[in-house]
């Protein structure tokens, strides 16, 4: 097996210089850097990550916590995270938490055992548990977190309400996201502000969970509680699709009898017919920028913004009526 | 920091016994095992994975290669893999290859650098590259692989064709999956056998890729080439949905004017209306059993079956017409 000594010998530099060059740590003259990289390439030398990790007390691994890998919003985030960390020389340890605090604890333990350099988490958990690890929170963010990337939930809530008010709503129902997800309440506040301003009455339906596998059951409950709803501001796209399907099964025509707006803009919302109108969150960008922020922290680069807020936009498709008088 | 010596002291056994007990390697009396586990718990002792990995020359990490994390079929596989490996004490390093051989190479290098114990791959790649690592292939499998879990593609192809023949097809088009994915051709053979047996004519459309982000473009190409198609056997669910949407946009009523059957049964195929009839592959089960097989190999357990083939089933929904005469 090729060792760092072989590389040093071929490049005619010291072992310490090879280490600095290949780890991009400390000063190395540009010409030397090139020589070392060429020597490493020639000898097919890849520093062993495990030995390096033990020596440096941290690895080139980053832990990724997702609340639900079967909701397409999160694979899109994961893809953004992955593209960033790979470019910067890290790899991802996957943790799919499924809104299960016990699983979250288990993963944090596993991450610690593997000396991860840091954690990117889209799970709104007890971040106190991560106190020894650099981490960046994505999406489900509250104010008291140090590093976070999320989209503008209040704006999203107002955009969703503004989208329905001019489309002849008869009975508006807001599907409120789970109470333990901070962004749910911020979106609700945004929507309520608009509806109150326009003096439109509305009802609320509490979505118990964001788990994909509960969506169909929840859609049935929705219609039991709100048989006469004709305009729905849904908690996310997965739940909007389930409610839309249940409406169709009940013989309601979309959007004439029943109109709905989702939240997230996952790829499937565009791919069905009628297409789901929704608030687009930049999932890939949230993941990418969150990972960039973490890498900057790990590499002790200057941090310009600790809380990054990305814009959301309305995607109008066929699930809302044409605009008409109020 | 708590060390293995502290645990040994509290449990009143030797360090070697603690190591055997916590690593589940070698004989440990049941009562001793319990004493050690309790001591480790009391002292909040977690063996450092990195040190263990360097010593044992392999880690408790398993690499997972996926072709496209944004196709919901693969997160479902990933969930199965994850549930199995976690139960057996391993963690997952994620590699999303996106049908890019260069990315696959990069991941295999990263996996090697991290001393992964083995690899589970749903990418049909050049497995020769993995010769030094135990690996199990999922889904996109050819016969010359040593360990594999997949579903019965030929059966799937026949079921898809049998589902359409009694539903008054006028012009059948088979969307053939990418040529470099072995299962595409096996499914095609299954469908063709049935159609030939019933002396039904059909045409073929070559799907250039399985990448989700090319589905809409491909659906438009499909209708340019096959304007008069009224019955489609699609290459997978993502592409079936894209074609179904394009048909609806062209004013075709589903299933009266245009009927279609998919392949995979991802969760969204059930959640739209009309629901997509499809061939259900047990994605979670493929992932779970593949990971179990790999763990058995790593733990040198007896291997009952090196190639596991799981059944597929027809899921009838609204995208096909009612049965009628041929």
TrEMBL record, chains A, B:
Record flagged with keyword Transcription regulation: yes
Occurrences of domain HTH lacI-type (ranges): 2-56
UniProtKB keywords: DNA-binding, Repressor, Transcription, Transcription regulation
SMART domains with a match to the protein in the record: HTH_LACI (SM00354)
GO molecular function terms attached to this record: DNA-binding transcription factor activity; transcription cis-regulatory region binding
Keyword DNA-binding recorded: yes
UniProt xrefs under Pfam families: LacI (PF00356), Peripla_BP_3 (PF13377)
InterPro entries: HTH_LacI, LacI/GalR-like_sensor, Lambda_DNA-bd_dom_sf, Peripla_BP_I
UniProt name for this protein: Catabolite control protein A
């Amino acid at each position: 097996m090729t060792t760092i000594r072989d590389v040093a010998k071929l490049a005619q530099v010291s072992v310490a210089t090879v280490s600095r060059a290949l780890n991009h740590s400390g000063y190395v003259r540009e010409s030397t850097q090139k020589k070392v990289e060429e020597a490493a390439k020639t000898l097919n030398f890849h520093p062993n990550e495990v030995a390096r990790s033990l020596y440096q007390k941290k690895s080139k691994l980053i832990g990724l916590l997702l609340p639900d890998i079967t909701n397409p919003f999160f694979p899109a985030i994961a893809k953004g995270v992955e593209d960033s960390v790979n470019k910067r020389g890290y790899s991802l340890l996957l943790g799919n938490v499924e809104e299960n605090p016990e699983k979250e604890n288990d993963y944090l333990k596993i991450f610690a055992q593997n000396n991860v350099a840091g954690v990117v988490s889209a799970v709104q958990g007890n971040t106190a548990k991560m106190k020894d690890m650099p981490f960046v929170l994505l999406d489900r963010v509250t104010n008291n977190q140090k590093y976070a990337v999320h989209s503008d939930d209040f704006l999203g809530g107002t955009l969703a309400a503004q989208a329905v008010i001019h489309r002849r709503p008869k009975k508006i129902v807001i599907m409120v996201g789970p109470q333990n997800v901070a962004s749910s309440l911020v979106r609700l506040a945004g929507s309520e502000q608009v509806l109150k301003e326009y003096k439109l009455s509305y009802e609320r339906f509490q979505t118990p969970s964001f788990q994909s596998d509960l969506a169909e059951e929840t859609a049935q409950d929705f219609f039991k509680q709100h048989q006469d709803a004709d305009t729905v501001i849904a908690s996310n796209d997965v739940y909007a699709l389930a409610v839309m399907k249940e409406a169709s099964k009940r013989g309601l025509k979309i959007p004439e009898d029943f109109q709905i707006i989702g939240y997230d803009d996952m790829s499937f919302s565009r791919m069905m017919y009628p297409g789901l109108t929704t608030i687009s969150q930049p999932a890939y960008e949230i993941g990418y920028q969150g990972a960039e922020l973490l890498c900057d922290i790990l590499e002790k680069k200057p941090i310009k913004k600790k809380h990054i807020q990305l814009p959301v936009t309305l995607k109008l498709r066929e699930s809302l009526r044409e605009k008409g008088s109020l």
